[in-house]
Amino acid sequence: MGLPNSPICREEIPSAFDLADVQHLHAISVEGQGPVTVVTPKQRWAYAVGFPLRLDRLDSQAQSAENVLVQVDVTVRRGRVGISAVNAGGNTLMEWFCVPEDGRTTCLLRCDRLADCQNLIVRNVADTGEASKIVLYDIRVVKTNGQAGLGWLAQRQRAAIGEDRHRLPEEGGRAERGTGKFFLIAGIGHCGTKWLAHVLNHPHQGMICWHEKKAEAVPFDWLTCLAYELEIGIDATFDRYWSFLRRATTNYELVGDSHSWSTDMIPEVARRWEISRVVFLVRNGIQNVHSFHIHNKNVARAQWAYRGHLRRSWELLGQPDRARKDCSNWANWCLLWQTNLLMPEWLGEKLGQHKVSVLRLEDLLSNADILDNLIRTLNPKLNLPHSEQERFQATDVNRKVQDEDRSPQALWRKWTDDQREVFREICGPGMAKYGYPIPAAS
């Protein structure tokens, strides 16, 4: 594997990573030192092996190199594998996904500074409950001129694996699509979209509902994907998603996808595929913001929401810049929750208000009539006994945290005075609009 044939790439930094330095983490088996064959654990997201950065082998100029591209030459034999650049704190800087259909391909990981990429991690990202298998042939690092943007990376990947086979006809042409209808479940993270996808997934009755299916179609991690959509939009990088959808709508009467697309991108999705309905979920802001704060604290690029996603939403809403002097992660999460509540009306203007249904997660969990009405609206033919609906409603949506009081009142007491003040200021209007009380005292 040589340097990519591009003026963007300048010179190689040898010996930064070595296949012979493979670290056994939780792999079922590891064979060879170059190439290295790895069988991952069966669990999804489980780490298999790592390859540490060997700064001690590099001269001072290489150690301080910026705008580098890590190239990992691989073939996935089965399953789905993620290869990520990880910093010293264990945070993922960028991750690239590979499947057997890619053949022998090169994963391209962009890093601002080589010293930040302390480890390359190989993990299982297949959701089948089976182990994945990958062969790693080589790891190289090259300096770039700083112009290795996301669009360039994706173009290189498509060219390498021949992604044209997934492509639909250009806009205005007729794609071979099934007759099944397509709907989306939208909302921000930790608001119950995965739970609702499980409720609405009934393949034996002609209805399926995915959760984050887009993640299986694109070659990189979710944060990079969000940045890509902001920077590039929806292009041929997403063609595999339409291929998934084409097959599904051929085999099922109703196909749903949950939490794949941020609300601001849904009109762009609708330009490429007709959307019959969008179910937009809202959750109590105290619980939602707290979940962001706890479960997303290790996001390496924590400012993405403030600098990119939020600003785009404000522009689409036609509102003046709502930036704050307080740019803390806490304020970002509060702003994300409050801004999210303004998006359904905007989306209705784009798709038609009759296509957008806004529902509170708490009502779906506690009111059998509201859940039943949603199910009947989406699929009048679905036969879901009330006992089955009650089983879904009894599901613990706070599954990530056990043996802890996760009620809004309990969480409110845990917050600092400053956190409560920022929350009241930013989220108070949204809490009032959707009937969520704010505790009067700490």
What do these coordinates show?
- The protein is an alpha+beta fold and 442 residues long.
- The protein has helices spanning 60-63, 150-161, 193-199, 222-231, 239-251, 266-272, 285-295, 304-316, 329-340, 343-351, 361-366, 368-378, 386-393, 408-414, 417-433; strands at 9-12, 23-24, 29-31, 36-39, 47-52, 66-78, 81-86, 92-98, 105-113, 119-124, 133-144, 181-186, 207-211, 254-258, 277-282, 356-360.
- It folds into two domains: 9-161, Sandwich (Jelly Rolls), CATH 2.60.120.430; 181-433, Rossmann fold, CATH 3.40.50.
- The protein is 33% helix and 22% strand.
- The strands form three sheets. Strands 1, 3, 4, 6, 9 and 11 form a six-stranded antiparallel beta sheet that branches. It has a five-stranded antiparallel beta sheet with strand order 2-5-10-7-8, with no helix packed on it. A five-stranded parallel beta sheet has the order 13-14-12-15-16, sandwiched between helices.
- The longest helix has 17 residues, at 417-433.
Under CATH, the topology of the largest domain is which?
Rossmann fold
Radius of gyration over all CA atoms, rounded: 23 Å
Please tell me the CATH architecture of the largest domain by its name: 3-Layer(aba) Sandwich
How many structural domains are formed by the residues?
2
Q: Report the helical percentage.
A: 25-40%
Shape, please? globular
**Low-confidence sequence ranges:** 164-175
Q: Supply the number of helical segments.
A: 15
Major pleated sheet: 6 strands, antiparallel
Counting helices, strands and paired strands, the structural category is alpha+beta
Number of strand elements: 16
Mean pLDDT score = 87
